[in-house]
TrEMBL record:
Negatively regulates transcription of bacterial ribonucleotide reductase nrd genes and operons by binding to NrdR-boxes. This is Transcriptional repressor NrdR. Belongs to the NrdR family. The lineage of its organism: Bacteria, Pseudomonadati, Pseudomonadota, Alphaproteobacteria, Hyphomicrobiales. Its cofactor is Zn(2+). The keyword Nucleotide-binding applies. A zinc finger (unnamed) spans 3-34. Residues 1-24 are annotated as: Disordered. One of its GO terms (molecular function) is DNA binding. It comes from the Bacteria. Residues 49-139 form the ATP-cone domain. The gene is nrdR.
């Protein structure tokens, strides 16, 4: 692992332990050249995933971009970081185990919508407004009506 401070090509691992989410390994490292200390995280990657954008362009899948999407939608919402990590890890596992190396960006967007719906209603509407390209207040009214109908169905089912 290259040192982020002096770019030395060799660093030493001083401590390894599972990360808080238990889906990665946290390693404390030290550079023998400059003495700099830093932390790295290692995750299991089942296969290289490629995202196919709407315009046909292909880009490597970026887990950090997925995390940022959740963070933007959930900004100032009462959702713990651990729940976000679990949702992102769940999406990544589903994508990796799907068997296809190329994934349509729309598929990822739908998985994010599904996860946000379970995490926070406001974040779901925020993400949906960008993902579905809302342009009028009627678009928001439709999604809120969908929510109201779903809540009514869920309440009826839980009372039975």
């Amino acid at each position: 692992m290259r040192c982020p401070f002096c770019n030395s090509p060799d660093t030493q691992v001083k401590d390894s332990r599972p990360a808080e989410d238990n889906t990665s390994i946290r390693r404390r490292r030290v550079c023998p050249d400059c003495g700099g200390r830093f932390t790295t995280f290692e995750r299991v990657q089942l296969r290289e995933l490629v995202v196919v954008k709407k315009n046909g362009r292909k880009v490597p899948f970026d887990r950090d971009k997925l995390v940022r999407s959740f963070e933007i939608a959930l900004r100032k919402r009462p959702v713990e970081r651990e729940r976000i990590e679990r949702a992102v890890s769940g999406i990544v596992r589903r994508l990796e185990s799907a068997g296809e190396p190329e994934i349509q960006s729309e598929e990822i967007g739908l998985l994010v919508l599904e996860a946000l719906k379970n995490l926070d209603d406001v974040a779901f509407v925020r993400f949906a407004s960008v993902y579905r390209d809302f342009s009028t207040t009627e678009d928001f009214e439709e999604i809120i009506a969908e929510f109201s109908a779903k809540l009514a169905r869920d309440n009826e089912t839980s009372e039975i």
